[in-house]
Amino acid sequence: MSGYAGPDSGPAGAVHVSGTGNAYANGGLANTGYLLIRKFIQVRQAAAPRPPLDVAADALAKAVRREWEKEARLRRLLEPAPLPVRWQVTQRRVAGRIDGAIAEDGRARFAPLPGLTAVTRDVLRRGGALPELHAVYGGLASGRLLLVGEPAVGKTSAAVLLLREALKYRAEAAPDVRGDIPVPVMLTPFGWDPDQENATDWVASRLSREYTLFRNRGGVDRARELLEEGRIALFLDGLDEVGGKQRAAMLSALEEASFRVVVVSRARALTGRRQRLSGAAPLEIQPVCSEDASAYLMNPLRDPAPSGWQELNRRLLDEPGSAVAETLTSPLAISLLRDIYADSDGRPVDELLDADRFPSTRSLQDHLLDQLVRAAYMPRPRRPRPRYSPETAERTLRYLATQVTQTQADRELRWWHIPTWTDRRPRMIFVGAVTGLLYGVVGLFTLWGTAGPVWACLLGPLCALGGGLLAAHHHSELSDQQPLPSAGWRDIFPPGAVALGTFIWLFSGTTSWLVFQLPGNDPFPAWLAYLAALPLGFGTTMVSSRGYKLVAGTILGTGSGPQYDELRNRLSQRPVTETRAVSPRDVWRHHIGLRLVLGLLTGVAVAVFSGSLVAHEYGLRNGVLVGATAGLWACLFAGPAGNLGVAAALSAVQLSISEGTPVRLMSFFEDARRRNLLRAAGPAYQFRHDWLRESLTSSARSEG
Predict the structure, then answer these.
(1) Predicted local distance difference test score (pLDDT) of residue 450
(2) How confident is the model at residue 11 (pLDDT cuts 50, 70, 90)?
(3) Which end of the chain is more exposed for a tag (fewer CB within 10 A), N or C?
(4) Of 37-51, 79-93, 560-574, 681-695, where does the model show the most confidence?
(5) pLDDT for the residue 668
(6) CA distance 360 to 352
(7) In 62-211, which ranges are E strands?
């Protein structure tokens, strides 16, 4: 055919274009067909189901990114631009030899992440900033990284920035290698008992509570599989906030984990011989250099900057020994200065340059600390409004600092000591009145139905008065300083105590049934014998465990005295509060929730025991009435009347009236912890810095 141009000797698939429109059309059709086929293959590939772990990892990365974007804004790590992170290999003895981290012998536990290279000794020696920190995180052969430093040096901020950098790196990776890049998640160690759970099981359990992705059926198993496959990297912050024994056990458990681990801690918490993470690269976050501090403070200002700021900047850069330069090596001091002066309504920064007023670093630091609480609770644009006003927060923290300084040698803020700060008499009256009213009403109703109206009117008020007085006295005992009671189900129901209680139940039930089968006794059904004996087994379990105080004073509390402590120690082994890192709020919730439930169970046990016996002798109706009355008393006595969490909550109401502190004091503690004013130390709180506590105490004294 005229004008046809056949295949040329060019590259395969190329079409030689010559002369006519037909040839061009034929070549265009061929190219179009090729593109359509390629597009079809891509669509089929995209439509193919993705592996479930890839889907779960991507969903987790999205949730973590959303969570920490919000948290970074709250911490002011996004706007303005954060201070640069500087790090060096620490000279402190907080880890083993560096050889175990880099594995120069070729026995690497983790291959470098896609696009990164293996970390060498020279890389660690050079130190660096955030990009180099991410390269170390992703290329470390051991997969174990320690971020340590002095208080207020910015360790947690560095970890948050590293986490965001790791998320960004994963999001920008090619889809075919993204699955080989783990999703970083940041957790605190509270709630972990390494003696009962290995690191993988604990993290999987925490993820199922933190992220809705893992709350459905099989969610924990999916999280565990991601961890076992190395699809998740753990950032553990706050290890220095748990006790030494727990910390050592956690570090040992982390050594065996199958995923990458980044531990954030104060350096001094890891200097003990048993407090080291084997195979970890220990990097110390460095104080802020003058150039970085200058850029952070001056860049947001207009050009030219006000004269006061220019002079402050000159001293910062040119006079390294000045009070200003030495003070502004801390991220906390730098951010405070910016919050107080750059974001204020024209407050002159010149006052910081007054050598007579601020002759030393300590005087300048104290001045900034005086503004710390107000700056932490100051409303700011595009941020959630603080729950508490600066005045309320400052007043509350001053009161807490004074109490801790005066009453605690170790300067710990123990919430279970709050009842000792207030007058116990108002709480006794309240608890006694409520208990007496409830018990009196039920007692009156019971006596009316069993003994008649005359006896009900005579004995009902006596029941109310006696019940109220006993409950008030029991509650008053909580106003004395005491150790923290048991904080876990395993303390209340250890296997040894449960076994002993089960034996007593079966033995008592069988014995009573056999006795009633003897000639001359009324028939007693076997099910009723075992039902009546069940409270005896429950009481035995409680008495022989660390929950014995819950039944003390009730019919089930026989043998609950301290003379049986040796038996309890044998049956209960170590208390959970010594082996499990529990946050203060979780412990408080435990006393509000768990012990109220146990008080209810105690009441039910007393009701079943007394009611079943009365029902057998005097009928079901009388048995129900007597059981309900006896059970209500035991429930109130063992539950709210003897609950430390309830006592702390009632004391918070008293403090709100007398001192102007928040009614929900535990919520305030947690809010102050989020704002880096308090820190958790196991089940107690501490002020984030001793000099903050001292500054607040001094302010309270000067105002007093």
Answers:
(1) 72
(2) very low
(3) N
(4) 79-93
(5) 94
(6) 11
(7) 87-89, 144-149, 183-187
pLDDT at 27: 46
In sequence order, the β-bridge partners of residue 87 are 128, 285
Indicate the helix (H) or strand (E) that contains 13: none
> Is-contact 283 263, C-beta < 8 A?
no
What span, in angstroms and rounded, lies between the C-alpha atoms of 394 and 372? 9
Residue 388 has pLDDT above 80, yes or no: yes
Instruction: Kindly report, residue by residue over 508-560, the tens digit of the pLDDT.
Output: 888 888 877 777 666 667 877 888 788 888 888 877 777 777 777 676 766 66
CA distance 16 to 24: 9
Which residue in 613, 431, 597 sits closest to 535, CA to CA? 613
CB-CB neighbours of 568 under 10 Å: 22
Beta sheet of 232-237, edge-to-edge order: 87-89, 281-285, 144-149, 261-266, 232-237, 183-187
Is the Cβ–Cβ distance between 585 and 666 less than 8 Å?
yes
pTM metric for this prediction: 0.68
What's the mean pLDDT in 134-150? 93
User: Which own/partner pairs from 438-442 qualify as long-range (CB within 8 Å, at least 24 positions apart)?
Assistant: 438/632, 438/636, 439/463, 439/464, 439/467, 439/468, 439/629, 439/632, 439/633, 439/636, 440/464, 440/465, 440/467, 440/468, 442/628, 442/629, 442/632
Q: Tens digits of per-residue pLDDT, 95-122?
A: 878 888 887 666 788 999 999 999 999 9
Amino acid at 8: D
The C-alpha atoms of residue 321 and residue 302 are separated, in whole angstroms, by 28
Sign of CA dihedral 429, 434, 437, 438: negative
- The percent helix, strand, coil of the chain (3-state, each to 5) is 60, 5, 30
The per-residue pLDDT for 35 is: 53
Q: What is the spatial distance between Cα 201 and Cα 336, in angstroms, rounded to a whole number? A: 40
Q: Which helix (H) or strand (E) holds 235?
A: strand 232-237
Strands (E), 389-502: none
| Domain 52-285 grouped into CATH 1.10.10 | no
**Cis omega (within 30 of 0) for bond into 562:** no
Local structure of 693: helix, strand or coil: helix
Q: Which residues, 6 or more positions from 63, have their beta carbon under 8 angstroms from its beta carbon?
A: 211, 212, 213
Q: Quick one: tokens of 33?
A: 């067909």
Q: Which residue has the tokens 């553990």?
A: 236
> How far apart, in whole angstroms, are the C-alpha atoms of residue 553 and residue 611?
19
640 alpha-carbon distance from chain centroid: 26
> Phi and psi for 486 in degrees, rounded to 5?
-55, 145
What digits encode the pLDDT tens for the residues 678-699? 877 667 888 877 778 888 888 7
- Give the orientation angle of helix 526-543 with respect to helix 495-516, to 10 degrees: 150
CA 49 from chain center: how many Å? 37
Helix (H, G, I), strand (E, B) or coil at 486: coil
Q: What is the DSSP string of 326-388?
A: HHTTSHHHHHHHIIIIITSSS--GGGGG-TTT--SHHHHHHHHHHTHHHHHT---TTSPPPSS
Q: What separation in angstroms does the CA of 242 have from each of 196, 207, 452?
A: 17, 20, 60
Name the one residue in this structure whose structure tokens are 């890049």: 181
Among 366, 390, 387, 367, residue whose Cα is nearest residue 377: 390
Pairing of strands 281-285, 87-89: antiparallel
Q: Which two tokens stand for residue 456?
A: 């009900």
Neighbours of 210 (CB within 10 A): 18
Give yes or no for residue 258 having a pLDDT over 80: yes
**C-alpha–C-alpha distance, residues 479 and 419, integer Å:** 5
Q: pLDDT tens digit string along 213-247?
A: 887 778 899 999 999 999 999 999 988 878 778 88
Residue 562 CB neighbours (<10 A): 8
